[in-house]
Structure prediction request, 337 residues.
Amino acid sequence: IDPNGLMIYCAEYCFTPEEALAMEGENQFNKALLSEQLTQIKIHHVVSPYGEIDNGVLDYERGTNKVKFIRDPLGKVHILEHPKSDESGNAYRNLYVAGIDSIDIGMSETSINTDDPSQFCIVVKKRAFGMEPPTYVAFYKDRPNNINEAYKQALCLLQYYNCKAVLESTKVSLLTWIRSKGAASLYLMKRPRACLPDVDRGRSNLYGAQASPAVIQHGLDLIENYINDYSQEIWFIEMLEDFISYSYENKRKFDIVAACQMCELGDEELTGVTAKSTDIKVKKLPMLGYYTDEYGKKQYGVIPDRDIHETKWDDDDINTNNVYKGVRSSDPRDYRN
Prediction:
């Protein structure tokens, strides 16, 4: 007797609840909370505080390195909230974090014998910001014919939200592609400390997290904690459905869950790091040297701001015979050389 075949048969022609749920596998997520949120969206048509979800694609503005969002009902980039910007118009640093479940080949290179191949997926999470709760604000999931299209959308999404992503370390094709663009250090996160043998010592120079059972389980635990606390903040139907039907035994089929695992590892790594403006305030260094003080004596040190002593001269203060008619002063700096 084939055990797997028997389990499938019992699940399809079940007589008991145990047989009906035999194929569900191990799922530690709170299905009651997830189902309640899914019902609110699909049955009661509750809309998120951020409004409707935007669908579209990301691309670069012609002749620039600036990313723009193009709305398209058939687009694979789904955005709940566009990035919060500072005074300079750039997204806040460290406000967003991303996770990537990558693939190495596109659909055109996939064997026709492959059953339900994995898809490329990237999710973006807005970390806690003031009174605003942490929320997944964007995701992209697709398996295009040319895998470079997926890589491009991922990099555009990271630039759009000005954030770094954690990816699985075995997916070297994406890492190689981003390195070729000179963007690895800008948009990819080094291995989180939770993935190191000794959490309290040192850091790794490697990119991405291992796909070991311990790391996978830790990522699932982080997702479970997020669902327990913030299930009402999940507004993507596809994400809710992935969480509800997740099975550890068939985990390769749940690309959104895998991407969320990486994202939660990145969020944990940023614990204690606050979001800040991208505006760089450059402190003006004082000028050092010799100068003449208000008593006419030569001094050395920080040269004082001379604007407060400078007299404003008008052309009318000097006649055609070059005879001074301006303000009289005992300050030698008020006289022209």
Observations:
- The longest strand covers residues 135-142.
